[in-house]
Amino acid sequence: MPRSEDVTAFVEEHELSDSPNIAVVRRLYDSEGDPAVAAQIMILVLERDYDSINMGHIATKAGLARNTLYNHANDKRTLVPQLARRASLPLTEDVAVIAARSAWSAADRCGRSSR
Fold first, then answer.
1. pTM, rounded to two decimals
2. In the Cβ-directed half-sphere of 3, how many Cα atoms lie within 13 Å?
3. Structurally, how many domains does the chain consist of?
4. Where is the HTH tetR-type domain (predicted)?
5. Within 10 Å of residue 6's Cβ, how many Cβ atoms?
6. Cβ–Cβ contacts within 10 Å for residue 69, how many?
7. How many CB atoms are closer than 10 A to CB 13?
8. Cα–Cα distance between 108 and 7 in angstroms, integer?
């Protein structure tokens, strides 16, 4: 299983520290579930085109047997959104807390954000 240092080394080696995806890589790495799978999917997405990635690539990168990876999801189109939802959950919760504290109504917030 890759360690956090492995992800950091990859980021530095490939000069990706300014990429907007790096925060997602780190958040997925620290999320529930198998961090090896999460980290390796995001690294693959940074390395190559999403359409060219298959479950075999993900399994190999994560150091898993392909059958083990299928315990997580039936295909990458299921696995990647699961990880994205998990990664976005803390942000969604933060936004909900901020919105709940706002003095503006929901309609006002929507109207003001579009101006």
1. 0.48
2. 2
3. 1
4. 31-91
5. 15
6. 22
7. 8
8. 42
